[in-house]
Every structure is written in C-alpha cells, then in structure tokens.
Amino acid sequence: MKASLNLQTTKNAVKSAFQVALVAVMMALLGCSSNEPIPLIVSHQVIISVGDEVNPYGGNKSHPIVLRVYQLSESGTFQKSGFIDLYRNDIEVLGGSLVDLHNVQPLVPGEQHTLTLDIHRQSQYLAVFAEFANYDNAKSKDVIKLPQDNEAQLVIRVSGLSVSITEATDD
Q: PANTHER family, per this entry (predicted)?
C-alpha cells in the first residue's frame, strides 16, 4: 500500500511539474510575441489623364487603354521586365517585390479619372503599366519612388503610345 501511495505521489508530482513547465513555456512564448503595430496604410490620390489620341492602331487614331498600377517594395524587377512578361505573368514576374496590384477599368481617350490608392507601409514605389496594342513602339511602363509627403498627389498621363507617372506640381 505504501509503494502504491508513493507511486501515486510521484505521478502527481511529475504531473504538477509538467503543468508548471508548460505554463512557463507558454508565458515565455507570449513574452516573445511581436508588439509591432499592423502595417499602416496611407491613402494617395492618383489623377489619371488620358489624352485625346491614345493607343492608336489599325488605322484609327484612338482606342481605350487598360492600366495596371503596382505597389512595389523595389523597382528593379519591374524596370527590367519586358512588355509580354508583365502582360502575361505580372504577378509571377514581380514576385516578392509586388506589394499590391490595382487594375484600372478601360479608359477612353480624353478621360480624366481620380483613383484613391491605399498605399501599404512596405511599398516604396508606384509603377504603372499600359496595355498598348502597338506595344513594340510604345513606352508602356513607368515607375516613381513614393513621395514622403502623404498629401502628395500623383499623376498618370497616357498620351499616344506613352505612359508616365509623376508627382503633381502646383502649376
């Protein structure tokens, strides 16, 4: 009987020690958790200005244009990528540098459009890609480092066979 009591006491002691150790490990893990805030998102106004003569092909002077606006953590991959690669596989091509993608509905010649983008904290660059039909002769992409001023407006201009993105000026 005494051996049985000692065995039971030993089992209880081991069980209690295990429970204490488990609680200690859980507390240690909780203490190691990150206190970093959720990444901030800042809104930026982007003005899109489409010229009267844009995306010419097939004997006609103007056609609608589709734009893609990318938030990037770095710009090198985007700048080195060709039209077809971005057109067909932009997400795969941009890989880890892609933070967010916004597809803009087709814009008609002469259209002005305002876009509000929620810029993620890890985004360092804003890039634009225009789906020109005559892409061999087009400047189909541009990139800009995001301004430090969260109030800054950005402007995307599409004219003829060219797209650009710049910070808005006061004039």
A: OUTER MEMBRANE LIPOPROTEIN (PTHR37625:SF4), OUTER MEMBRANE LIPOPROTEIN-RELATED (PTHR37625)
| pLDDT tens by residue, 148-159 | 887 889 999 999
**What type of residue is 52?**
D
> For residue 22, what are its two tokens?
């488990």
pLDDT digits (tens, 9 = 90+) for 117-137: 999 999 999 999 999 999 999
Reported pTM: 0.75
- Rg of the chain's alpha carbons, rounded to an integer? 28
DSSP 121-148: TT--EEEEEE--TTGGGSB-EEEEEPPS
